UniProtKB/TrEMBL annotation:
Single GO cellular component term: cytoplasm
GO molecular function, one term: unfolded protein binding
Organism: Ichthyophthirius multifiliis (White spot disease agent)
Record protein name field: J domain-containing protein
UniProt keyword Repeat, yes or no: yes
Record's keyword annotation contains Acyltransferase: no
Every CR-type domain range: 150-228
Residue ranges occupied by any J domain in the UniProt entry: 16-80
Family matches, as SUPFAM superfamilies: Chaperone J-domain, DnaJ/Hsp40 cysteine-rich domain, HSP40/DnaJ peptide-binding domain
C-alpha cells in the first residue's frame, strides 16, 4: 500500500522532506502548497483510520513548515536535516511564539472553503472528559427536630456551571470558534524528542482543538461561571452528629462532557437547652461518684 511504502517510520528518520510531500526538489512554492493541501486532506487523523495517520500527518506538517519557508528550504537543500539545520532551528526559537498565529491565519484563508472535511470528531482528544469537583458544606439542625421525624431543609451554596451565554463554546455570541490547524483539531501535536515521537498538548489551542478569537465576555473565555445554587436536602430521622450526606451530581459541572461532582453535607446537630442541663447534671453526678470512690479507696488502704 502507498501508506506503507512512502511513509515508513524510517522515512522520518532520514528526513527526506521532498519524499514526504511526494514532490521533486525543483517544485515551486505554489506546487508545494497545493500538494500539501492534498496530503493533509488525505491523511488527516480525523478522516484517515490508519494507525499511522497521526505520525504521517505530523511528518507532512513538518515538511511543509520547512519547504514553504524560503530561508529554511535553502538551508535544508544545502545541509539536509543535519545538526547544522537543528542549530538553525534553535536560533529561530524566539520566532516560534508568533508562528502558530501566522500559520493559523494562513490555514484559515487557504482551507476556509474546505473545512467540512474536518467535521468528523477526532478519536483522540488532548482534553478528555473530566469530572467536576465536589462541594462540601455544613448544615445545622435542632436535636429535637431531627429526633422526631425526617425533615427537609433548603441549602444555598456557590457552584461552577456552564456559561449560559456561550454554552461552553468560550466564544462571543454570534461568533464561531475556528478549527485549530496546528494540530488539525485534535488538540495534540506530535514532536520529536531524543529521536522519538512524543505527544504534547497543542500550545496554540491549549488542547481544545479550536481557536477562540473573540472570547465570551461573561465567562472570559473559560466556558464556566459561578452561580448561587439552591438545593433541597432530606435529612433522615435519628441522624448522628457530624454525619455526612451525599447528593450525587449536585457538585461543580464537569469539563469536556464529564460528570458533575457531588455535594457533601455535614450535619451538625445543635443541642437542646434541656439536654444541656441534663448533661451538666450527669457530669456533676459522675464527678461526685468519683470523689466518693477515691475516699473509699483511701480508707481501705
Amino acid at each position: 500500500m502507498l501508506i506503507k511504502s512512502l511513509y515508513k517510520y524510517s522515512s522520518y528518520n532520514n528526513k527526506n522532506l521532498y519524499q514526504i510531500l511526494q514532490l521533486p526538489k525543483t517544485s515551486t512554492i505554489q506546487e508545494i502548497k497545493s500538494q500539501y493541501y492534498k496530503l493533509v486532506k488525505k491523511y488527516h487523523p480525523d478522516t484517515n483510520p490508519s494507525p499511522q495517520s497521526k505520525d504521517i500527518f505530523s511528518q507532512i506538517q513538518n515538511a511543509y513548515d520547512i519547504l514553504s519557508d524560503q530561508s529554511k528550504r535553502a538551508i535544508y537543500d544545502s545541509c539536509g536535516y543535519s545538526n547544522s539545520y537543528e542549530d538553525f532551528q534553535e536560533q529561530q526559537q524566539q520566532q516560534k511564539s508568533e508562528k502558530p498565529k501566522n500559520r493559523q491565519q494562513f490555514y484559515e484563508e487557504t482551507f476556509q472553503d474546505f473545512d467540512a472535511f474536518f467535521e468528523r470528531k477526532s478519536k483522540t482528544r488532548a482534553r478528555p472528559a473530566k469530572k467536576g469537583e465536589d462541594i462540601q458544606i455544613q448544615l445545622h439542625v435542632d436535636f429535637l427536630e431531627i429526633m422526631q421525624q425526617t425533615i427537609q431543609k433548603q441549602v444555598q451554596f456557590q457552584k461552577k456551571v456552564l456559561c449560559y451565554i456561550c454554552k461552553g463554546t468560550r466564544a462571543q455570541t454570534g461568533t464561531i470558534p475556528s478549527k485549530c490547524y496546528s494540530c488539525g483539531g485534535t488538540g495534540i501535536l506530535l514532536v520529536k524528542e531524543n529521536h522519538q515521537m512524543c505527544e504534547q498538548i497543542c500550545d496554540q489551542c491549549e488542547g481544545f482543538g479550536k481557536i477562540v478569537k473573540n472570547k465570551c465576555k461573561t465567562c472570559l473565555g473559560t466556558a464556566f461561571i459561578q452561580k448561587t445554587q439552591d438545593e433541597k436536602i432530606i435529612i433522615p430521622k435519628g441522624i448522628k452528629d457530624k454525619q455526612v450526606l451525599r447528593k450525587e451530581g449536585s457538585g461543580n459541572t464537569g469539563e469536556q462532557g464529564g460528570k458533575n461532582g457531588d455535594l457533601f453535607i455535614q450535619i451538625n446537630i445543635k443541642e437542646h437547652p434541656q439536654l444541656e442541663i441534663k448533661q451538666e447534671q450527669e457530669n456533676e453526678g459522675k464527678k461526685q461518684e468519683d470523689i466518693l470512690k477515691n475516699k473509699q479507696e483511701q480508707q481501705f488502704q
